[in-house]
Specification:
With 141 residues, the chain is mainly alpha-helical. Helices cover 72% and strands 8% of the residues. It is built from six helices and three strands. A three-stranded antiparallel sheet has the order 2-1-3. A hairpin with a 7-residue loop joins strand 1 and strand 2. Helix 2 packs across helix 5.
């Protein structure tokens, strides 16, 4: 599990920049790729308070939890900190980001064509792997 967790330290940033969706008003005009980062950039332009919350919940909380679990796995952090890491895991809600992203898309256009991209699967896999690592770390402690 500790190597899977270390892999997440690399895979999470890749997933943030990978295209989650392709969206367009009409597909004949080309589709814009939307990633976690571009979604956050759009959100910052429309609603800074929501963007701040989503940035914390979709990027900082899951990455801090992953770093904390890595430190725990390599005996560089006390097992007593596991409850704090669990709280960070509960705060790391990727679905909040996705809902905010859909709000931005819906505000932008009435008739939007949306296609999923490979980054959505990578991001979802990272979240699921992080949940698995957390669960296994809790049962091992």
């Amino acid at each position: 599990m500790k190597y899977l967790n270390l892999a997440l330290l690399i895979l999470f940033p890749i997933a943030w920049f990978a295209p989650l969706l392709r969206a367009a008003l009409l597909p004949i005009f080309g589709m814009d790729e939307i990633s976690v980062i571009t979604g956050l950039q759009s959100l910052w332009e429309t609603d800074a308070a929501l963007a701040l919350a989503v940035t914390f919940l979709a990027i900082f909380a899951p990455y801090a939890k992953t770093i904390g679990l890595a430190l725990l796995h390599w005996n560089l952090l006390s097992p007593k900190t596991l409850p704090v890491l669990e709280i960070l895991g509960k705060l790391a809600m990727a679905d909040v980001f996705l809902i905010a992203l859909y709000i931005v898309i819906a505000k932008g256009a009435g008739h939007v064509t949306i296609e999923t991209a490979w980054g959505l699967y990578l991001f979802t896999g990272c979240i699921l792997a992080s949940i698995l690592v957390s669960w296994k770390s809790k049962t091992a402690a």
